[in-house]
Design brief:
The structure is a homodimer.
Chain A: E1 17-21, H1 26-38, E2 44-47, H2 56-62, H3 67-70, E3 72-74, H4 77-80, E4 86-90, E5 101-102, H5 104-116, E6 121-125, H6 134-138, E7 142-144, H7 157-169, H8 187-203, H9 213-227, H10 231-255
Parallel strand pairs in A: 1-2, 1-6, 2-3, 4-6, 4-7, 5-7
Chain lengths: 256, 256
C-alpha cells in the first residue's frame, strides 16, 4: 500500500483498514477512495466488487485519490481481511446478535486505542442493497451503527465511509495555517478605543437622558468585548469613528 | 419547510440550517438532500444553483429525500439566509480573516448550545470549485474547516454536508432496537461452565504438567470473561463440550 501521500505525518499512527464487501456501484467505490484520502486513511480493501476491476466509474469518482491504485481489490475474502485483528461491522439493521453496539464515534475512539496498542482494526461495509452478510457480522467484535433517522435510514455507501473516515480525524484541532497572524488588542488599546467612541458620542448628544450613560456605555463595550478585536481592528474602528465625526461636521456645515 | 418526515421526534430540537451557495452539480445537491434527511436535518436552503431548478440529477440523487420538495431554492441571498442568527463558513482555504477557526465537532457543539438558547445557526457551503465568497466568510461568526490531508484536501461538497450532518447526531447513543434481548449469564452460571469445561479437560489429560493447571485454567477463564457470555451462550458452549467429549469417546471406541 502506498504511504507516499503524506497521510503519515511524523508521529501520526496509521489509521484503520476499511473493507468494502461486494460493493455494487463503481461511483461509490471511487467516492470512498476520495474521502478516505481526504481524511488521511490509506488502507482500503475491496472484496469482490460486482462490476469487476478496474472500474472506470470508480476511477473518475476517486478524483485522483492515490487509493485507486493502492487499494487491495480481491475476490478472496480472507485476503481482504488479512492483518485485521479486530473487525467492526457497520450495519443499518439490528441483527439480533449478542454483540456490543457502538456509534461511529465510540467505535473509532476504541479503534484508535487498539491501534496505539499495536492492533489493526478493520471496518466492514456491506453492499448497497443487502448490507453485510450475517457471517461477517458474527466475526466482528462489535456492530457499528450510525444515528440515522429511522424514517429515512438508507445512507449512501460512500457517505457511510466518509462519516467514518472523518471520525478518524474529528478530534484533531483546527490546522495552524488557519490561525490569523494579527495581534489581539490588549485591554489598554481597547479602553482607549471605547473612550474615543464614547467621547464622540457624548459630543453628539447620544447619551440621553444623562443618567442612562453608564448603562449605555456598558452595553456598547459589551459588543466589542465579545467580538475580540485585534490591534489592526482597533485602528480601523477608530478611523471609522473619526471619519463619521468629521463627516458629521461636514454634513452639518453643509446643512447650516 | 416540511416537518412531516419524522426528524422532529418529541423533545428533539430542530437542527441548524444548511445553506448551499451557488452549487454547481445537481448530483451534489441531491446527495446533500439525502444525507441531511438521513441524519434528521430538514432546513436546507440552496442559493442560485448553477443549473437552475428543478434539477433532475438532484432529484435522482436525493433518493426520495423529503428535502427535494421542502428545500428553499432561491436566487435571493438574503432570502436564503433568512432567520439565521449566526453563520458558520465552511472553507478549505485559510482566508486571513480574524475569526475563530473551528472543527466540525466544535462548531456543531456550539451550534447545539445556540439552538437550545433559541438561536438559529446556519452552516454555509461554497461552490465545488471556488468555495465561499469572502463576503460571506466576513459575515460569519466562525470559520469551520475539516481536518483534511493537506496533500489531498479537495472534499466533495455533499461529503462535507454529510460529515456536518452526522456531527449533528454523532453524540447520540446507539439505538435501543440494536440492543440484544438475551440475558447475560451471571457469575454462578459462568463458573459452572468453567468447571464443566475444566473437568472434561482434566479427564482428557489437557493439564500437563499438573502444576501448570492453575495458570492454564486462569488463561481459559480469561477468554470467556472478556467475551461476556449470555445465558443462551453458556448453554450452547456446554452443549459443545458435551458433544466433543461424547465424540471423543466414540472416536476412541472406533479406534480401539
Amino acid at each position: 500500500m502506498s504511504s507516499s501521500d503524506g497521510a503519515h505525518a511524523p508521529g501520526r499512527v496509521a489509521g484503520p483498514a476499511f473493507v468494502l464487501i461486494n460493493p455494487q456501484m463503481g461511483e461509490n467505490i471511487g467516492a470512498a477512495m476520495r474521502v478516505m484520502a481526504n481524511f488521511g486513511l490509506d488502507d482500503l480493501r475491496v472484496f469482490a466488487p460486482r462490476d469487476g476491476w478496474p472500474n472506470e466509474r470508480a476511477e473518475a469518482m476517486s478524483a485522483g485519490s492515490p487509493l485507486y491504485a493502492s487499494a487491495r481489490v480481491t475476490d478472496d475474502l480472507e485476503q481482504a481481511l488479512e492483518g485485521c485483528t479486530v473487525l467492526y461491522a457497520t450495519t443499518a439493521r439490528p441483527r439480533g446478535m449478542v454483540k456490543p453496539v457502538m456509534t461511529a464515534r465510540e467505535a473509532m475512539s476504541e479503534a484508535r486505542g487498539l491501534i496505539e496498542a499495536g492492533q489493526r482494526p478493520g471496518f466492514l461495509f456491506g453492499a448497497e442493497k443487502s448490507g453485510l452478510p450475517n457471517e461477517l457480522v458474527a466475526r466482528s467484535r462489535a456492530i457499528l451503527t450510525l444515528p440515522v433517522n429511522p424514517q429515512f435510514a438508507s445512507l449512501n455507501l460512500s457517505m457511510a465511509v466518509g462519516v467514518l473516515a472523518h471520525e478518524w480525524r474529528a478530534g484533531d484541532p483546527a490546522p495552524e495555517e488557519f490561525k490569523p497572524l494579527e495581534e489581539p488588542a490588549d485591554a489598554v488599546q481597547l479602553v482607549r478605543m471605547y473612550e474615543h467612541f464614547e467621547d464622540e458620542l457624548e459630543r453628539a448628544g447620544f447619551f440621553f437622558p444623562p443618567e442612562k450613560k453608564p448603562l449605555m456605555t456598558q452595553n456598547l463595550r459589551n459588543i466589542f468585548a465579545r467580538a475580540g478585536l485585534t490591534e489592526q481592528e482597533v485602528r480601523t474602528f477608530r478611523g471609522a469613528i473619526k471619519a463619521l465625526t468629521i463627516g458629521r461636521g461636514k454634513a452639518r456645515i453643509a446643512r447650516d
